[in-house]
Structures are given as C-alpha cells and as structure tokens.
Amino acid sequence: MGTLGILVNTDRHAAHVVGLARAALARNHAVSIFVMDGGTHLLRDAALADLASLEGVTLSVCTHSAERHGVSLEALPEAVVRGSQLNNAMMNHQAERVVVL
User: Fold this and answer.
1) Could you give the CA distance from residue 41 to residue 24 in angstroms, rounded to a whole number?
2) Phi-psi group of 2: left, alpha or beta (phi > 0 → left; psi -120 to 50 → alpha; rest → beta)
3) Are 30 and 2 in contact (CB under 8 A)?
4) Taking the domains of the chain in order of start, what are their residue ranges?
5) Which of 26, 44, 54, 74 has an alpha carbon within 20 to 30 A of 68's alpha carbon?
6) In this predicted model, what pLDDT tens digit does every residue of 49-70 receive, in sequence order?
7) How far apart are CA 63 and CA 25, in angstroms?
8) Residue 1 — very low, low, confident or very high, per pLDDT cuts 50/70/90?
9) Average per-residue pLDDT in the chain?
10) How far apart are CA 18 and CA 14, in angstroms?
C-alpha cells in the first residue's frame, strides 16, 4: 500500500494526527509525519511523539522551528528524526496523499 503524509504546522489537532496515523497503519499504509512551526508544541504530547516508535511510521521535526518556538527536543524518543525542511520535501515527494493539520 501507499504512504500517507501528515504535515503538522499548528498546535491543534494532536488527537487527529494520532487517529489518522493509526487508521492508516491499520489499513497497511505507511505514515510519514513532519512537524514544523507551531506544531512543534504538540510534540509534548506523548501519544503523538510515541508514533515514531511504531513500525511503518516516520516522524520528523524541523529543528529550526522547534528552536524558534522554544520547544526542547531532548525528551523526545530517539526514533523522532531531528531534521529540516528537506524532510518535509521528501515526505511530500514520497507520499501518495498529504493531509495538513
């Protein structure tokens, strides 16, 4: 099956991100999540950050955005990729569909 991309750029909808990711996984889709801008605040939600440890999920965060918004990345699981807008571009290139929240 294909890959669902989820771009998270606001500090709302954490439950929706988790729900969409789990629903896609249940249907044998891979999930790629990129978190940037205000969305970096949602990484404090363990349910969202823990998605990175699930098989079939790639979760990356723009470190520049996190720094700009005062969000520490130290407590995140190691599976969360500390990245840049390159990770966003790669997700958009590889995903069959992208949802923006």
Assistant:
1) 23
2) beta
3) yes
4) 3-100
5) 54
6) 999 999 999 999 999 999 999 9
7) 26
8) confident
9) 96
10) 6
CA 5 centroid distance within chain: 8
- Mean pLDDT for 30-55 is 96
Nearest Cα to 92, choosing from 3, 9, 25? 3
Q: Which whole-number Å values give the CA distances from 31 to 26, 43, 56, in the listed order? A: 11, 17, 6
**Topology of 3-100 in CATH?**
Hypothetical Protein Ychn; Chain: A, (3.40.1260)
Strand 30-35 vs strand 3-8: parallel, antiparallel, or unpaired?
parallel
Rounding to the nearest 10 degrees, give the CA dihedral for residues 38, 39, 42, 48.
180
Q: Among 74, 81, 27, 71, which residue's Cα sits nearest to residue 51?
A: 81
